[in-house]
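Aim 2, interim progress. The first record below pairs a target sequence with its structure tokens.
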Amino acid sequence: WNDLWASSFTPWDRAGPSPALADTLSQKADLLGQPAVAGTDGSTTRARALVPGCGRGYDVLLLASAGYDAWGLDSSGVAVGEAERYAAEAGNDEGIYPLINPEVGRGAAHFLEGDFYARNWEAGITGLAEDGGFDLIYDYTFLCAMNPPMRPAWASRMRELLRPGGVLVCLEFPTAKTSLSEGGPPWACPSALHRVLLGWPGEEVPYSDGVVVESPGRAKSEKALTQLGHWKAERTHAGQGTDWVSVWRR
């Protein structure tokens, strides 16, 4: 990934934030919790949000405009540098990132280079361990870029990074692909995959000819996340009408 960024080969870069996330923040806020809470002393405590595989950080800045203290994580140092430059240029631009709720205000945007599956980068976020994790995580074209054997670890790590009660927002893409035989990345990410991964975090995904197999009578894991909502995205620049959004609570 770093080599691709260094060579400026980034065909996945859409030059702006996810419309599906923007709509979720404005239309489904009741599922996400409060991005900020005002104290009696006039201070503001902000919820923490994470965007793994953040690239140039468009969605990090969008979450900050909604009031979150948002963190973008990328394994590519080149991408992190690009995100920091873009944030300095456009992060406070009301034309691109208007405040979603002026009463809540704008949160901060931060960027870190690190491996999502490692723990060392967490030390760079003050108070994260004490608070038990992130309040919101957004997965946009991150899971679909993972080699399929890494999927159980993705689910375990997402659960680990969320505080109890925190929410995971997933843009399900590409749902038009249904089988691993269709190749990737992006690898097939049908809704069934998210249900299996987050219903049994860390457990192997059952496939038949590359298609995810669900077992309706199977008891959910004690570690299962709870699905709060699932809908077809009205606006998206990923799957062109085939993307879905799901929200999960730890």
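The second target in this work package is listed in the same format:
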Amino acid sequence: MFILSEIRDTVALQPHTFGLDAAEVLARELNKKYANRILQDIGLVISVFDLIKCSEGKVRYGDGCLWYKVDFRLVVFRPFISEILNGKVKSQDEDGIRVSLTFFDEVYIDVSQLPAPCAYDFSRQKFFWSPSLEEGATRLQLMDSPFGERLYIELDAPIRFRVEGDEFYDDEPGPPKASEGVRVDLTREPKKPPYRIFASIAGQGMGPLEWWEGVGGVENQMDE
């Protein structure tokens, strides 16, 4: 789930920090710049892990700062494909489910990645799985199934999912505002997050944890 990524950057230290430990100040400045940021094709930065090497500080002409070239490592959140993670259901609609990991909310489970047979109940605004029906059951059969046989996916429910892929999006500046005398295109697609994960809950042991409570074989398999 977490990896180390090596980065090189140039950092300026202000004069009021000259009497302090340079390594500590550099780490603090790097955390200000990188922590909780998305780096394209790398992932979500959690914090600076360590400093690998650092040049001597140099003063630039007309600038009272000391400038350092620093090689350092970052703790980055970027789960690998097929990794199993636990989160909580943040929201859902007929297109799929959004899952939160508390520190990261851009996990999406498409409707095609739900266990079969599964359907979206518009009256309750949530998905349900009906394991008593055959995999090829139609929506009509699912909606006619007894409520007692439906396993609903509840909001905020702990859920186990498998990572299927991820996507980075380099956001471009938006169009000028209408107040500036330029027409705004209201047909534009909703803004995409800079980084998102695609997941699946199809398979044994996947989905809301309450579905598998008391199923010892599955729990033991997931713990291995």
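The longest strand covers residues 2-13. This observation will shape the mutagenesis plan for the next reporting period.
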